[in-house]
């Protein structure tokens, strides 16, 4: 069986949905964070697939950008998680729900 | 004199500046300055302004120029609309600045004594100087806008000074009444000058006068002259206390007496007369407006005099007398006697300031008592005040050789003799040109064709002449009633007051004496023509006797010569003698009646009052005009205010302002549940939104 663009996109979409599902239902901050990474990387996969299909480098450029941003986000996100843990002694995001009226 | 100086006559700026500086010094530092220094600054500023005025008028009279001007500041400068703070000195404003600064200085001097014990004296002098500043702006302004600043300025100062003793509710209310009634007039005034501007494109008096007197442009101006002049005249009825807006002036007597003398007798109230004289070219373009002015003036003169007959408050009598005399001036303008109006303005400034200051002296001596029924025999204690007051009464009554006689006679004579050449039947079609006048009208003036005047003008002039005579009779009567009740006979004051009776200090008697002299000689600059005719061989004397008329001639020349003419032509002499005779008779008759009623037979007035009780009551109640205004306008305004208040409270505030707030608040109350602080819920909203957006877009 030949692997076509559709297959790549399907894998990307499935991975993205898994990421969304994780973000919406998981309580653990680290898990949430990993799910966000999953979503980012599914988008990367999609970009690369389109890039290969169209035979140009634009998708690569975007993928690199996303990787760079994801690296920065990882730094900030992990620092935030660390602080949440220190503050609440827990990684449950439901505990960190004081930003409300 | 070189031409540059003519257009850059900076003395005019100085005249205006001195009182302003005086007001600033007293206004900013007056509360901390010693009392003597406050007096010195206020009077010094006035004296400097007076000296500069004299000097300016002297330079002007020698300069051979028609006018001197000075542009102090380029005020508004846009493409099509330019207005400068510019001043204009011509014969008319010369007369006005001399009266304002001269009489103003005397009244400042008087006030130093009159107000010496008042803790707010510095404030008083600040307002007084500020008033003089505004009044000088009004008369010196070269365009209507500068005049308008002064016009509003004097109104504001008048309000401040009437309500000077503002802790007394009644006095504060009198100040507000003056201000509000004046605003009614000012509104019409603004409309008038805007209408004038839209048609002419200028506010400048010189340009306006040229337009109004040049035959070609006058024809263009004629259609709007009637509404413009009437609107401006409504403004004048407010400021100069004419029917129907005169009611504020008698109430204005709540202010300190020198204020009544300066503002509500000598200067501010004459600004309407000044303005119409300034615009004489425009006024004479429209004979309908002149009819209105003449009739309103004559009616005001008459009705105010009837009210003055029965008033018992010394200042109220003088107040109604002022309204009446101002009516005389408007009567004069209405019959085209601008010289007469300005002449009467001047003599009136002298004798009415004198009378008010005299009454202030009396009130001071009586310890604040103003009811003439409780006075009497005061001449024993107050020789200077009583003598100067008597001179003032003689002058205002119009006894020959006193100033009031000359001005009143000129007005009455002109009312009888003047006619508009516009009205001569068949003289010409449309508006006259200088040529058509010299060719057809002026010859006709000298022939019997002059008697062919248009009927309305003829009737109106005779009507105002008769009303003027009756007013003169009543004026003589009530002024001498006032004099006799105050200074002659037995003293009716209680013993306590009697013990305190004294002549006033020199700061009060000097201004009285100076004004008394002016009240006599002030009129000697304008003798009747027939008298000056006796001296026709000695041209110098004859000219001197008509000095006032000759001085003002350049201002009124065009309109007087070509639009207003003497309908008796060459044969005027017997008529002028007759007019003088009527006037003198009225004065003598009035004085004699007062003498009989209040000296010979003091029981008579009471019996007469009994027999015509109803009429007396009507007069004493001032025709109930104030009450009628209350019902017709004041209460209706209050009602409208209440309705607006309700609308504002319930509809604007209730429904609109609070409604919007309530709605936003309620919406927020619902939305707040979305803000749960739960990150995952937010993420859910985002995902749901994206999904919905996705479906919406496909």
Automatic annotation (TrEMBL), chain A:
It is an enzyme of class 7 (translocase). It is found in: Cell membrane; Membrane. The chain crosses the membrane at residues 6-24, 31-50, 62-85. One of its GO terms (biological process) is ATP synthesis coupled electron transport. It catalyses: a quinone + NADH + 5 H(+)(in) = a quinol + NAD(+) + 4 H(+)(out). One of its GO terms (molecular function) is NADH dehydrogenase (quinone) (non-electrogenic) activity. GO terms for cellular component: NADH dehydrogenase complex; plasma membrane. It is a multi-pass membrane protein. InterPro entries: NADH_UbQ_OxRdtase_chain4L/K (IPR001133), NUOK/Mnh_C1-like (IPR039428). The keyword Transferase does not apply. Keywords: Cell membrane, Membrane, NAD, Oxidoreductase, Quinone, Translocase, Transmembrane, Transmembrane helix, Transport, Ubiquinone. Its EC number is 7.1.1.-. Belongs to the complex I subunit 4L family. NDH-1 is composed of 14 different subunits. Subunits NuoA, H, J, K, L, M, N constitute the membrane sector of the complex. PANTHER family: NADH DEHYDROGENASE SUBUNIT 4L-RELATED (PTHR11434:SF21), NADH-UBIQUINONE OXIDOREDUCTASE SUBUNIT ND4L (PTHR11434). NDH-1 shuttles electrons from NADH, via FMN and iron-sulfur (Fe-S) centers, to quinones in the respiratory chain. The immediate electron acceptor for the enzyme in this species is believed to be ubiquinone. Couples the redox reaction to proton translocation (for every two electrons transferred, four hydrogen ions are translocated across the cytoplasmic membrane), and thus conserves the redox energy in a proton gradient. This is NADH-quinone oxidoreductase subunit K.
From TrEMBL, chain B:
It is found in: Endomembrane system; Membrane. Residues 75-125 form the NADH-Ubiquinone oxidoreductase (complex I) chain 5 N-terminal domain. GO terms for molecular function: NADH dehydrogenase (ubiquinone) activity; NADH dehydrogenase activity. GO terms for biological process: ATP synthesis coupled electron transport; electron transport coupled proton transport. The keyword Cell wall biogenesis/degradation does not apply. GO terms for cellular component: endomembrane system; membrane. It holds the Pfam family Proton_antipo_N. Gene3D superfamilies: 1.20.5.2700. The chain crosses the membrane at residues 9-31, 37-60, 95-112, 124-142, 148-166, 178-198, 218-238, 259-277, 289-310, 317-343, 349-367, 388-406, 459-484, 505-527, 577-599, 651-670, 682-697. This is NADH-quinone oxidoreductase subunit L. The lineage of its organism: Bacteria, Deltaproteobacteria, Bradymonadales, Microvenatoraceae, Microvenator. The gene is nuoL.
């Amino acid at each position: 069986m030949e692997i076509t663009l559709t297959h790549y996109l399907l894998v990307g979409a499935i991975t993205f949905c898994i990421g969304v599902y994780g973000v919406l239902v998981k309580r653990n901050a680290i898990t949430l964070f990993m799910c966000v990474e999953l979503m980012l990387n599914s988008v990367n996969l999609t970009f690369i697939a389109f890039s290969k299909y169209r035979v140009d480098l634009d998708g690569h450029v975007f993928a690199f950008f996303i990787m760079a941003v994801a690296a920065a986000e990882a730094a900030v996100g992990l620092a935030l998680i660390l602080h949440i843990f220190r503050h609440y002694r827990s990684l449950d995001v439901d505990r960190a729900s004081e930003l409300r009226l | 004199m070189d031409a540059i100086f003519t257009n850059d006559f900076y003395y005019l700026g100085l005249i205006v500046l001195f009182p302003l500086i005086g007001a600033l010094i007293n206004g900013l530092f007056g509360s901390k300055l010693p009392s003597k220094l406050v007096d010195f600054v206020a009077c010094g500023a006035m004296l400097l302004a007076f000296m500069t005025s004299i000097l300016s008028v002297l330079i002007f009279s020698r300069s051979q120029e028609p006018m001197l001007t000075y542009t102090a500041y380029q005020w508004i400068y846009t493409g099509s609309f330019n207005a400068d703070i510019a001043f204009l000195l011509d014969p008319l404003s010369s007369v006005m600045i001399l009266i304002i600064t001269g009489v103003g200085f005397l009244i400042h001097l008087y006030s130093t004594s009159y107000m010496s014990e008042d803790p707010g004296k510095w404030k008083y002098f600040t307002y007084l100087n500020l008033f003089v500043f505004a009044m000088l702006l009004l008369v010196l302004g070269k365009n209507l806008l500068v005049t308008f600043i002064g016009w509003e300025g004097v109104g504001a100062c008048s309000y401040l000074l009437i309500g000077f003793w503002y802790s007394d509710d009644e006095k504060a209310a009198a100040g507000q009444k003056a201000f509000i009634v004046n605003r009614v007039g000012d509104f019409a005034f603004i409309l008038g000058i805007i209408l004038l501007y839209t048609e002419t494109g200028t506010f400048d008096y010189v340009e306006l006068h040229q337009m109004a007197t040049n035959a070609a442009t006058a024809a263009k101006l004629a259609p709007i002259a009637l509404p413009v002049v009437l609107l401006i005249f409504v403004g004048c009825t407010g400021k100069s206390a004419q029917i129907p807006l005169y009611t504020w002036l008698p109430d204005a007597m709540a202010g300190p007496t020198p204020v009544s003398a300066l503002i509500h007798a000598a200067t501010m109230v004459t600004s309407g007369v000044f303005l119409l004289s300034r615009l004489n070219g425009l006024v004479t373009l429209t004979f309908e407006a002149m009819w209105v002015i003449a009739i309103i003036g004559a009616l005001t003169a008459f009705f105010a005099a009837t009210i003055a007959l029965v008033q018992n408050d010394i200042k109220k009598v003088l107040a109604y007398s002022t309204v009446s005399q101002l009516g005389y001036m408007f009567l004069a303008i209405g019959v085209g006697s601008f010289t007469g109006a300005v002449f009467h303005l001047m003599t009136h400034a002298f004798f009415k300031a004198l009378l008010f200051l005299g009454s202030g002296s009396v009130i001071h001596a009586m310890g604040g008592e103003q009811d003439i029924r409780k006075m009497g025999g005061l001449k024993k204690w107050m020789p200077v005040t009583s003598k100067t007051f008597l001179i003032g009464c003689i002058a205002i009554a119009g006894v020959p050789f006193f100033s009031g006689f000359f001005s009143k006679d000129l007005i009455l004579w002109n009312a009888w003799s003047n006619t508009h050449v516009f009205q001569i039947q068949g003289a010409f079609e449309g508006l006259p040109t200088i040529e058509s006048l010299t060719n057809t009208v002026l010859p006709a003036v000298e022939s019997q064709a002059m008697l062919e005047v248009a009927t309305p003008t003829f009737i109106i002039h005779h009507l105002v002449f008769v009303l003027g005579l009756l007013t003169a009779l009543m004026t003589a009567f009530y002024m001498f009633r006032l004099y006799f009740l105050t200074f002659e006979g037995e003293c009716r004051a209680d013993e306590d007051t009697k013990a305190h009776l004294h002549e006033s200090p020199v700061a009060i008697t000097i201004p009285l004496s100076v004004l008394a002299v002016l009240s006599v000689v002030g009129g000697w600059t304008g003798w009747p023509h027939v008298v000056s005719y006796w001296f026709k061989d000695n041209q110098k004397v004859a000219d001197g006797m008509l000095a006032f008329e000759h001085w003002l001639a350049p201002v009124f020349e065009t309109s007087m010569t070509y639009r207003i003419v003497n309908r008796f032509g060459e044969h005027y002499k017997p008529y002028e003698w007759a007019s003088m005779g009527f006037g003198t008779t009225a004065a003598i008759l009035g004085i004699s009646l007062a003498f009989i009623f209040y000296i010979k037979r003091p029981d008579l007035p009471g019996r007469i009052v009994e027999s015509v009780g109803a009429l007396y009551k009507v007069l004493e109640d001032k025709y109930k005009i104030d009450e009628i205004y209350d019902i017709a306008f004041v209460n209706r305004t209050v009602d409208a205010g209440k309705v607006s208040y309700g609308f504002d409270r319930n509809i604007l505030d209730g429904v609109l302002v609070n409604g919007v707030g309530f709605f936003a608040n309620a919406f927020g109350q619902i939305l707040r549940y979305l803000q749960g602080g739960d990150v995952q819920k937010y993420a859910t909203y985002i995902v749901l939104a994206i999904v919905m957006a996705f479906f919406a877009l496909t």
